[in-house]
Structure formats: C-alpha cells, structure tokens
Design brief:
This protein is mostly helical. The protein has 13 helices and four strands. The protein starts with a helix and ends with a strand.
C-alpha cells in the first residue's frame, strides 16, 4: 500500500509539472516571443483559462503528502520553511500579474505586470529545480526526523549544503531551461502568427541548452550522490522510463519541422513525464534522503500513516481523481484550437 501511495504522489507531482509547467514556461519566454500588446494578450489568453486549475495539482500533491506520509510532510515543510514562503509569494505575484495586467490601459501598468510575470516565473522554475536537487542530493536529516539548512551558501564545492548551493542552483537552471522549452512548445501549439514563429525559433535554441545543462547536472549528480544512478542498473523499469524520456526529447526537433503543432509539445510532455518518473523510480522508496546517516532517511514505509488509513483514503482519492479528470478533459476540450489576438479560435 505504501508503494502505491508513493506512485500516486509521484504521479500527481508529474501532472503538476507537465500542466503548470507550460504556464511557467510561457511566463519565462513571455517577453521574448510576444513583443506588442496584442501579442502579449494573445499569449495570456492561451494560458489564462487554465493556469489556476493547473496549479491545483500542487495543492493536491501537498495534501496527499500530508495524508499518506505525515512524517515526510512535517520534516520537509519545517526544514524548507523559508523557500516555501518565498515560493508562495512568487505564485501569488504570478497570479496577480496574469489577472491584473489588462485591468488598466496604461503602458506603465502593463510593463510592470509583464516584468512581474516573467520575474516570478523564472524564480519559480529555479526554486522547483533546486527542490528536486535537494531530493536527489539529500538533506541533513537527523535522528529526530528534522533538518535545518541555510537558504544559500558560498556556492563552492565541498562547502556546507544549502537550499541554494552550487548543485541545487545548477539543477534549478536545468529546470528553468526545460520549462522554458516546454512553454515555448505549448505556445507553438496554441498560438499563431509572430508569437508562434518566435516560439519555434526559441524552442530550437532551448533544446540545445537543455542538452548542455543536462550533461552538467548529470556530472554533478555523480559527484554529490555517486550511488544515485545504480538503480538504473538494478531495476529495469527506471531504465525503460529514461529511454522513453530520451525518445520524446529527440523527437522534438523532428516534430518542429512538421506542420502538426501539437506533436512537438507531446514530445516535451513525454520527455518530462519519463524523466520525472525515472527519478521517482530511482529514489524509491526514499522520500527524504539523509546526508548524515542512511538510517535516518525517511522512506515510504517509515514515514507513512497507518495501513487502515491508507486503504480508506484510497477510496476517497479515487473518487476525487475521477471528478478531477472529467473536469480537466471538459475544460481542455472546450478550449481547443489556437488563440489569435487574445481570442480562442474554435
């Protein structure tokens, strides 16, 4: 039962990254692909009806973590309190920028919220990447099940670890490049005209940056956590997920040369899903890895609630997810088609 809930939690986080990831990515590339006020309204119309719904997956994943693995929830949220507060404010700023940007006709008002949207989107991507970096590298979790680390360090190797250090910032920049590419490919699918053309060109350049940053992150991961990739040899299915992820990634340039704008975005979705699922499979059953002593590591088995609670919760989780899936299918089907000058095309 613990393994099932681990998989469900991982699946919800993956859905969040895929769906809200293109919102973040669109915000990251916002002023690079949309130059005029009309083009920026076009971009905002592409993400405006769905960004808040996509964000619900993060809340749902947090609630699942609280219910199924309360010890990991307590340790993670107390140890990373400051970055979580910063992330919360950035999410609020991003939402305000999307909703308030067009409320006034003044150029200064538009420029302020445009800058706020891009600034918040960039920092959110870096913070999420740094969070994944801390999951992979581990934190100084002690015997009592808690840890405390500074927000940042001097960024030098062999220094003490922090929420933001040389490794986690590298992971954050890698995440930034992936989400920027993901957002650009979403805009290729959902927009037309100059915004689409600029998104195509930017996505091609970002594709190469993802390769470079992935190589750097891979090498640094071998340095900070040498045994992280060993499950790829011991377990077959994480390796299969890596192959699927790479297939999706290398399909993107080919798909961009075609006329079906949805295909490059699906390649990005495959890449992200395969990559995150492989990371989850490699980490399993660990939830929070301790750098002090492996015996302090919180796993899906040591951090879970009672088996009876997990069984009862599964019933209600299933009912809730059925409703959520129907809602998202309904919304995305009704918002199908490209957006032209801020108006959805049927």
């Amino acid at each position: 039962m613990q393994a099932l809930w681990y998989a469900l939690l991982a699946a919800m986080l993956i859905v969040f990254v895929v769906l809200d990831g293109f919102d973040f990515g669109a915000g990251i590339v916002y002023r690079f692909v949309a130059k005029t006020d009309s083009e920026r309204r076009q971009l905002l119309s592409a993400i405006g009806p769905v960004w808040d719904g996509n964000e619900v997956w993060l809340l749902a994943a947090g609630g699942t973590l609280f219910f199924a693995f309360p010890k990991a929830y307590a340790a993670g949220f107390s140890g990373l309190y400051m970055p979580l507060v910063i992330l919360l404010w950035l999410l609020i700023l991003r939402g305000l920028a999307i909703e308030l940007r067009s409320h006034e006709p003044y150029r200064l008002w538009h420029d302020f919220w445009d800058g706020t949207l891009q600034f918040a989107s960039v920092l959110i991507a870096v913070i999420f990447g740094a969070a994944f970096g801390n999951l992979v590298r581990g934190v100084p979790l002690n015997a009592s099940g808690y840890f405390s680390i500074p927000l940042f360090t001097n960024l030098l190797p062999y220094s003490w670890i922090g929420v933001l250090d040389y490794y986690t910032i590298t992971a954050g920049v890698f995440c930034l490049s992936v989400l920027a590419m993901h957002g650009a490919l979403f805009l290729v699918w959902k927009t037309d005209g100059p915004v689409r053309e600029r998104s195509v060109q930017l996505a091609r350049r970002l594709w190469w940056s993802v390769i470079a940053l992935a190589a750097i992150t891979f090498v640094l991961t071998l340095f900070v956590q040498p045994g992280f990739f060993s499950p790829l040899v011991d377990r077959v299915w994480p390796l299969i997920l890596v192959i699927i992820s790479l297939a999706g990634f290398f399909y993107i340039p080919t798909a961009l040369r075609g006329s079906a704008d949805l295909r490059p975005f699906l390649g990005s979705v495959t890449f992200i899903v395969g990559l995150l699922a492989a990371i989850a499979g490699t980490l399993f059953p660990n939830l929070i890895v301790s750098t002090l002593d492996p015996s302090y590591t919180l796993t899906a088995y040591s951090a879970s609630t009672s088996p009876y609670g997990l069984q009862v919760g599964l019933v209600w989780w299933t009912i809730g997810m059925i409703l959520v899936v129907f809602y998202f299918v309904f919304v995305y089907r009704n918002l199908s088609g490209k957006v032209t000058e801020g108006v959805p095309r049927e």
